[in-house]
Each structure stands twice: as C-alpha cells, then as structure tokens.
Amino acid sequence: EFMQACWDVEEVQAKGIQHLASFVEDESAFPYLLTCTEVIILAMKTHIDSLDLQVEACTLLLEILSQALEQGVMMALDERVASCLLHTVRKHSENEEFLSMLCTLLMMVSASEVAAENLRKVGIIPDLLSILRRFLHNDKICFSCCAVLWSLAVSENNADQAVLESALPVTSAVLQKHLHNGVVAESACSALWALALQGCLTDSDYEPTAALLLDALRMNPERAVLVKNGCLALASLVRLSETAALAILLDSKGSGTELINDGYHLHFDEPGVAEALCLLMNEMVQYDEVMLNMRSQKMEKLLSEIKLQFPFS
C-alpha cells in the first residue's frame, strides 16, 4: 500500500523492493509475495531510467517466479503488466547483462498460457527477434528468447503469421551458432518446431532447416528432450513437403534413418522419444519413394522393436 501511495518517489519504490526481497527466504511469506508482482513490475515501469531499481526488481521477480514454478503456481500476468515488461525491454535493449535477466524473467512468465498470450498481444515478438540478432553470441539470452518464442508461437489462435515467418532465419541462426550447446540447441529446436507447426516455412526453407535439425540431433544425441523436439520439428517439415523427407534420407553428413535408429536405441526407455520417432517415420512413409528407401534400410525391424518395448502405448 505504501509503494502504491508513493508511485512517483523512486526511493520509496527501491526501499519497498529491498524490504520485500528480505522475505524471499521465508516460506510462509511466499503467498503474500505472489500478490506483489504487479506492484513490482509497475514500479519498474514508473522508474524505468533507474537501472539499479530495474535490476533489484528483476532479481526479486525471478526469485518469486522460481518459487512459483517449483510449487506449480502459474503467474497469469495481465496485458497491462505484459505491456510494462515490453516497455522495460525496449528501454534497456542495449544492456546485455540486464537483458539476460529480463529475458529469463520473460521465459518464466511465458510458461503461463494467459501471460504468453498477453505478451503476444502487446507485440513482443519483433523485440525478441531484435535482441536475438544483436546478442546471438550470448547463450543465456538465446536460450531464454527461443523458449519465449516457442511459448508464443505454439498458441493456436496466432494472428502473427508474418511476424513469425521473420523469426525463422534468426532462430536457425541461433541453432547454427550454438549447435554444441545442448541447452540452447534444445530451446532453438523447440522454437523451430513451433514455427513449422504454424506453417512459417517456404519451399526454399525445408531442406536447409531439415539439415540443421539433423545436425542438432547428431551433436546432442544424449539429450532426450532435444531428440524428441527435433524429431517433432522434422515431422512437421515432412508433413509439409517431400523435399524435407528426401533431405533426411540423403543428408550429406550421413543417413537420417541411421540417426533415427541411433536416437531410439539411446533412449529406448523414453516413451516421448519413441512416439516422436514414430510420428516422424509415419510422415515419411506417406511418400512412395521415401517409403521404398526406408524399407531398404530395414526400418520395419526398428518399428517391431518399438512395438515390443511399448506394447500398451
């Protein structure tokens, strides 16, 4: 109440945030801290030029949201709050260190469908793409922004087709740059999957995107989530074009069917991976030439193994 009564006094807001931060370690205070998130975000908007206040507020929000996610509490922030966060992103778009925190915050917020929808409505996607282009070298920013992109793009009532189409080159660039970083590559694969689901690719995109996803699978075979999401992204591409299916079979760095085989045998106890691989193969056999090639590669043997491993799924 004191913070709300003195919106325009920066020192009051800063002291209020510091005082609230002192309760973070107290578990019994958590339900009350949850009710303070909007007040903290509005303090950030009101005193947007004060970097110290921005950093302290962002740090506190990260603490509160981390606890919320651990306890399965979703923060459905409204459109006004989403607008405040966008305002902060734009004001500090050159400050790499602060942006890294802010993008992590956006990633946590976008875990809620309602909050993700509100971020999409206020038009944050072009800003995310701009940040990615500027800080392509920063793995933390790339990881967070791709995760937010996935949350926003996967929304069923998406009215941002043109904006999302412009996301493909920069998302591909992130994956290319961070192929050896499993965490970032996993996030970028998820974003590419969402873009493929939304039909954001043109004919000239299918082959290079499929090749890039295959590279991600090759470089990070041990990461089950990446293998699953990479295969789901490939399945979405194959559903749209035979070119993608042929690119998987004829990849210059090695057969995609071998990758499918290896992916299953490495994660044979992961039903999500097996399901994604089956979905990919199911899309591939819709094309006669591809199916004949898969037969010659003895893919029935793999399918029989999967059937034996998951008889009741």
From TrEMBL:
GO terms for molecular function: ATP binding; protein serine/threonine kinase activity. The keyword Lyase does not apply. The keyword Nucleotide-binding applies. It comes from Certhia familiaris. It catalyses: L-seryl-[protein] + ATP = O-phospho-L-seryl-[protein] + ADP + H(+); L-threonyl-[protein] + ATP = O-phospho-L-threonyl-[protein] + ADP + H(+). Its EC number is 2.7.11.1. It comes from the Eukaryota. It is an enzyme of class 2 (transferase). Keywords: ATP-binding, Kinase, Nucleotide-binding, Serine/threonine-protein kinase, Transferase. This is Serine/threonine kinase-like domain-containing protein STKLD1.
